[in-house]
Amino acid sequence: MDKAYDVIIVGGGPAGIFAALELAQSEKLKVLLIEKGRDISGRQCPVRDTGVTCAECQPCNLVCGLGGAGAFSDGKLVLSTRVGGHISEYLGEERATGLIKYVDKLYLKFGATKKVFGDDGVIEQMSRKAEQAGLRLIPTPVRHMGTEKGYEVLKKMQDYLLPKIEIKTRTMVSRVLVEGKKVKGVETENGEKYYCKYLVLAPGREGSDWFSHEAIRLKLTMHNNPIDVGVRVEVPHAVMKELTDVLYEIKLEYKSPSFQDRIRTFCMCPAGEVIMESTGGVDPVVTVNGHSYAGKKTGNTNFALLVSTDFTRPFHEPIAYGKYLAKLSNLLGGGVLVQRLGNLLEGRRSTPARIEEGKLKPTLKSATPGDLSFALPFRHLTGIIEMLMAMDKMMPGVASGDTLLYGIEVKFYSFRPKLTACLETEIKNMFAVGDGTGVSRGLVQTSASGLVAAVEIMRRLEQG
Question: Which residues pair with residue 274 across a beta bridge?
């Protein structure tokens, strides 16, 4: 009976933590949070700390552990229902907006930065400039914590939870236990079984592969999200400073004239640095990402350009497709590739000498100079170049020959299970939340999804 709980949460990222914060308000509940990585203070990344080539730690300390990928992310809180996930589709616009405000208050309670970007009269002028360049600007309020402040906030949340719930780190859940279409508990990799009335699956990006396999085993109805594949772009900070000083996160969308694909900016890091990370899980690959710190600035700004593709039948493995493309980059460069835009347009690979000749110095020193045209499909690369040219009309210098492109960046939120308005799956009392289940793709909506599940669990428990 010591292994019986009211609620079990699988995954200690923002979705799992926010579910736990809500559940911890009741002293009567017995809650277990299981996380396969380390606690926050035990997470160290050799790449981030020393700049060496990715060692492919298992699991990846950068994206796995208490705090999830959010612990070492850029720490951006995008306070909008328009970007970052599908919460409004489940809750409706009014309730989703209210929930995002509540999430923001919780982050502030644990020490988030007070300044909000994007609430300025200049936005209308910027939107016109974007339209003239063939782009669409999506204005979104952003609270930027920075990587170090985001870590501190999530660490405070962890410390708050430690005396209130049971937390098991470095414990991998292998499968969900179900009996008669009702959740029963979970079994760990070492064969231990834990039983519960309610289960919240919050596997995070690193656990998306595990979740998709479990969903298939449990015969859940699954829907493909678009898969996002692209590059991380690095430019001098001065090129985008006028806009990032006001908006911080410049959300731009573009439709490729050649293929009609939707391309968008994502995870903008003003005065930040490019990093690499491992997807972890089964058959891990190394991908690229970006960070910005509150107290440490570089002379460069980086952002992702992602091409969204909706696959139709008979194709049904978008995660495998994304990993395949990332593997090509890993095969060619032993990790992350970097190429000057000028070299790409000339049809030449970048070499260490050609990178050195450029005016812009890469912040990811371990990236291997190479040729991204060998790793990205022609369709994707064409759309990315077209959008860079459009952005250059709005912000001259974005499409300079010295602009650096790192590849590849892939976002693995490509499966989404059929869910109710409270994010319950077709298995009774089993909820699916966060990035790894395809519900969200950002700190705020990820956190909000965990709250949605927890609030519903509390309501059912109170009703008996």
Answer: 290
Query: Are 205 and 442 a contacting pair, CB within 8 Å?
Result: no
Helix (H, G, I), strand (E, B) or coil at 407: strand
Q: List Cβ<8 Å contacts ≥24 apart for 295-300.
A: 295/146, 295/148, 296/148, 297/237, 297/271, 298/237, 298/271, 298/272, 298/273, 298/363, 299/236, 299/237, 299/271, 300/234, 300/235, 300/236, 300/237, 300/271, 300/272, 300/273, 300/360, 300/361, 300/363
Residue 72's identity, in one-letter code, is: F
Q: What is the DSSP string of 61-129?
A: TTTSSTTGGGGGS--EEE--SSSSBSHHHHH-HHHHHHHHHHHHHHHHHTT-----BS-STTHHHHHHH
What burial class does residue 265 get, using C-beta atoms within 10 Å of its C-beta: 0-12 exposed, 13-18 middle, 19+ buried? buried
pTM of the model: 0.87
Cis peptide before 408 (omega within 30 of 0): yes
Q: Catalogue all structural domains in the chain, each as residue range(s) with its CATH number.
A: 4-75+80-115+146-222+415-463 (3.50.50.60), 226-411 (no CATH)
Q: Tokens in use for 36?
A: 């396969």
Tell the burial category of 69 from Cβ atoms under 10 Å away from its Cβ (0-12, 13-18, 19+). Answer: buried
Contact by Cβ (8 Å): 263, 334: no
pLDDT tens string, the chain, 464 residues long: the values are: 469 999 999 999 999 999 999 999 999 999 999 999 998 888 877 666 565 666 667 777 777 888 887 877 888 999 999 888 999 999 999 999 999 999 999 999 999 999 999 866 678 889 999 999 999 999 889 999 988 899 999 999 999 999 999 999 999 999 999 999 999 999 999 999 999 999 999 999 888 889 988 999 999 998 877 788 999 999 999 999 999 999 999 999 999 999 999 999 999 999 999 998 887 666 788 899 998 888 889 999 999 999 988 777 676 677 788 888 989 999 998 889 999 999 999 999 999 999 999 999 999 999 999 999 999 999 999 999 999 999 999 999 999 999 999 999 988 665 789 999 999 999 999 999 999 898 998 899 999 999 999 999 999 999 87
Structure-token pair, residue 185? 């508990």
User: Biggest alpha carbon distance in the chain?
Assistant: 69
- Find the DSSP H helices in 315-367: 318-333, 341-346, 352-357
Q: What type of residue sits at position 383?
A: G
